[in-house]
Amino acid sequence: MFDIRRISTSRWWHKKKSWTLLGIFLFLVFVRISKGSIYKDFYYFISKPFWPGQFQKEVILKSIEQESLINSNLLKKDNIRLREILSLQESSNNDYISAAVISRKTGSWWRQIILNKGLKDGVEIGSAVIGPGGLLGRVKNTSLFTSSVTLLTSPESKLGVWLDRIQINGLLVGIGDDNPSLILYSEDADIKIGDFVSSSPASTLVPPNIPIGIVQSVDEPFKAKKTAKISLIAKPHVIDWVQILKVKI
Amino acid sequence: MNKFFIKKLPIIFFIFVPIIFLWHPNWLGFLGVQPYWPLFWLLPFSMINGSINGLIFGLFIGLILDSLTLDNNFTQIPGLMLCGIFFGRIELHRDFLVGHFRYGLICSFGSFLCGILYFLQILFKNFSYSNFLLFIPSLQNILAEVFLTGFFAPLICTHLLRMFKFTSRKLK
Asked: ipTM value of the model?
């Protein structure tokens, strides 16, 4: 006779919980795509009372001393080179933004710091971040109030560097521990412990001649290339104030 | 208001997981490494709500944590989803006493699983550069994380489990 259609109530789309979960999922996908901006801005406000003070003098003064010594040596050499080659690349610009570190992940795989300056202060993605001692990393992501910096020690970080003594370019690769690895694609590079590493004049990512670190140990696991462990001069796990170089290269 | 808080207690704690992940208290660390915070929440939650909820909330928490870390190429989602399923199955064996140290052991295993999955992604990504061997020393991150997670889990998970149980009992 009449086919009585049974109204099913067991379908997933009839359940309120399923729609709630779908809504949460879509919201979280939005959070993921927006790189957690909402969370970071929320964290900005709740962490405000705990922002760093004016302390940690000893560590900073030691790093600044080291930095200025290396800087003056570099400037001397740069001066000589400038006299020789008139078309030397611009090496400095003083247009920077000072920022406090409000979150720091310097251990484990995720090596990043979050700064209390963001889009509203004019921070741009890709800007170099320096601290007392030298280069720390690059701005990878910004929200309205914060910016996230990938440290040189992060497995995501790869940067061209310059070995001043032997006048050779190398690649600095973060490997997820405190000392990034330097790779030199040259068999006969005479790299030694104690060699000074700075940002490469050929790099398109960061300004040239920013101090980075000192060679700590040298290994030769491969025939075609040499690798070395670098001890960074700027210590991301203690630095509370940094400078963001405003203008990109 | 009070009932609202009791009902939403697990979700309130869920919101605080990424905050602690960002906060990264150094004084709790070992070799600069922190315990793997999301597992402390995921274990009690999955034990009470089962594998499917564990899987879903493992995915949710993974999405949030991935958005907070800058590594675009690597994700924490697979590890957390597997942990959600695994932790949810523990509920089936709830008859016998789940002691404090068992939470430590389970969380250590979960942390190891997540760490290894993350490490494998890094190796896989760098395989083509033939410098993947450089990453071997960073295995210490996993070991330190496993140790710390196992160390703190008995304390934190027991309390959270008690609170979540209290919440679910109140709701019934």
From this structure: 0.70
